[in-house]
Amino acid sequence: MRLVIAEKPSVARSIAEVLGAKNRKDGYLEGNDIQVSWCVGHLVALVNADVYNEKYAKWRYEDLPIIPDDWKHEVLTQTRKQFGILKKLMNAKEVSEIICATDAGREGELIFRLVYQEARCKKPVKRLWISSMEESAIEKGFKNLKDGSMYDALYESALCRSKADWLVGINASRLFSVLYRQRLNVGRVQTPTLSMIVDRNQQVKGFQKEKHYVVHLRFGALDAVSEHLKTKAEAEKIVSDCNDRMCQVETVDRQKKSVRPPKLYDLTTLQREANRIFGYTAQQTLDYTQSLYEKKLVTYPRTDSQYLTEDMKNTVADLMHIIPESLGIAKDISCLSKIEQVLNSKKVSDHHAIIPTREIRKSNLQELKKGEKDILNLVSAKLLAATAGNYEYESTRATLICNDHLFSASSIKVLTKGFKEFEEAFQRFIGKTIEKEQLEVELYENKHFGPVNAEMAEQYTKPPKQYSEDTLLAAMERAGNEDVTDDTEKKGIGTPATRAGIIEKLIHAGFVTREKKNLIPTDQGNALITVLPDNIKSPKMTAEWEMELNQIAKGKEDSEQFMHGIERMIKDLVATYHAVADEKQTQFPIGEKHSLGTCPRCDSPVYEGKKNYYCSNRECKFALWKNDKFLESLGKKMDTGTVKKFLKSGRVTFKNLVSKKTGKSYQADIVLDDDKDGYVHFKMEFPNKK
To answer: Catalytic: 300?
Structure first.
């Protein structure tokens, strides 16, 4: 019997359906001499620092750096049951082979390998590597299973990423928290991303706008404009000299230009355009696309490629007919598709670009959520545009003279709409207003216009814009790419799969807020970046690390060498930053958070969150929940006053509790019954009862 392990239950069900494993069991499906189970995301993770040594439960400079000699992992408490099911299945006598069917990427490989190792499984492993959940793709994938060892380098890359995040997060957070006497959350990837947001915000705030003037000459469709003028007096003189005068075209530069169709979507480009067009966050776009993937309607979302492989030509040809028929996009446009321009196997690494699947023809698309419909339409429209012809136009630029003053004018004549016809059709499909094309003006040498109407306009230089998720994702993708061409390895902060999560973490941690579409740093975010050194917050350095991880995954760089570099950086950091002047410690703003007391597990401050009261030490799991079921059953609430009492003495006395059986009131103490692991429990005591 073979055991297939997927990453999520929904994916496992789709695979089981194709393989004929229809009998539902506790935590897996079975049938046709095969079992299909799942991981529910990460089941195994690196242990907390205090597992290596109890002294690490407290944050102290003298204990740094913390660099494990022998890395340890543990089964996560919340998913321990599913791990137990997998361990039993993996080690069962009747199972002869394991098939890894987790997501075909770096994190998917890590999820499976850690479970495999923690379960002490020694059985042979095959790898399922697919980019679509279509039945045909699953069947083809199982006919072409790879030996699991072929992905050892990918696993090494994932493990290095995990360890590097742990080392930087644990050591840098503790180091700067101790130095500045504040609980500071530092991350290998999220801190450089925060640095980019803070830097842009400072550019916007520090921008000094400058006033200038221009003069327009208008006649019919003609709008000729002067150069920038420093003073109002200069502009007013030109208006006086030119108003109601004739102007003449002096020179004309006419060029034919051609714009190639857009590329298909990788995840980052899809997230950017979904943010710009629909206002979806990067995380929402990833969630909607992942859901569509699991419903077999689009291909694998976590990709960095914008091309398809050559063997997908027939699939694309089918989709050219299916999309207009099934979705109604561009159904009135007939255009000869140029499929070859989206096919390039050399530019596809792990997964090809995101496209819809032929399943859209069979599915009831009305049942989709609005966000899922929007993303499906966006992905489908992009495929139509990407396989269309070039947009061709004639651009004319001219200089004009009016009473010895020079002006410039431009005009565009559309020759072939090409892919823009599909882009406009999609705009109409989603109810967006199409920008009006610039009116064509016939411009040739010595042509006269007039008498013209001369008008002065006051203008200001524009500041840079705050980052939106669209522009931040682009900046994260470009970070460290100053010297990179299309033919060399991309760098960038994070990966297409992780960038959305990085943004959400910054917001959740209180370092960044959303203001409409803009991402704005909070006081805490600004303060954190102010006190951190460049080698921790540098986007370029983080991008270099990401490129090294990619090279490790390809077997081109050594994982041990990478980890030695990270460890060396951590040691240098601790040695360099060993003290901070008193005035700098007091200057660091505390922000809006106020400690409600000390955590009974690790002595760290406890703060109020949206749903709970949590320990500020991210390694500590202590939390008191606002909707605590035990207190609610007694008719009481977990408010700030109650939390302060629990943290101070470990108990709270309630005098007016009411018995559900007798209806009589009574008094009792509710005591924290904390076993230091997982959720906090309570017990009731009656101190006055003999």
So the answer is: yes
